[in-house]
Amino acid sequence: MYLSKVSFQASQQARQLLLGFGGKGVYSTHQMLWQLFTEEDKRSFLFREEQSADGSKAFFVLSSVKPESDESAFSVQTKVLTPKLQSGQRLSFTLRANPTVCTTDEKGKSKRHDVMMHAKKAAKESGVSDNEEIRLLMERAAQEWIANPKRLDNWGVTLDFLPEVQTYVQHRSDKNREDKIRFSSVDYQGVLTVQDPEKFLAQLEKGFGRAKSLGCGLMLIKSI
Known about the structure:
By secondary structure, the chain is α+β, with helices and mostly antiparallel strands. It has helices at 12-21, 26-33, 115-125, 131-146, 149-155, 197-206, and strands spanning 2-8, 45-51, 57-63, 74-80, 90-97, 100-104, 110-114, 157-159, 164-174, 180-194, 219-223.
């Protein structure tokens, strides 16, 4: 695996790239970053956008192949990522994920919902009106999503405690006039314990949760 930090150069080439792909939110970002992987027919990378104090944007990119650095448009710093993990090892982590829940109506039709908005709706329908209580219920729903035992077993980890929910963002991005993208992201920060290193590393490369092509799913880890 390769972990890269990518930013745009202050160049005419970068401006032309932004102009050509701009205006479609995170979908545009995905398309622009794909320019670093021109030999790939299918997306083989995860990414996450970060904003600096000066307002400039940078992207963490996790990929199975090394990105091609087009220095005229991008500034790319890449390192090989080869974590040596053992069962029982504790790691601090940050994760931007798209937590969802699937419900089935009386006609048997299933629908996927934003976990936090689903919790907000349920709280209001049950008579909760206090904004702080609703916020806490929404946050707890996001925590319960990531702490689901079956999900954690699939990932090969356990959580030492419920992670902190740092931010919640609703995104709107358009592929074209007909195809509207609506999704949410939650930034988690916490501590996990590796139970199955092979399973966890495979999931780390694949990404966690949904909306991986839209800037979700990339987990950053650090030994503690």
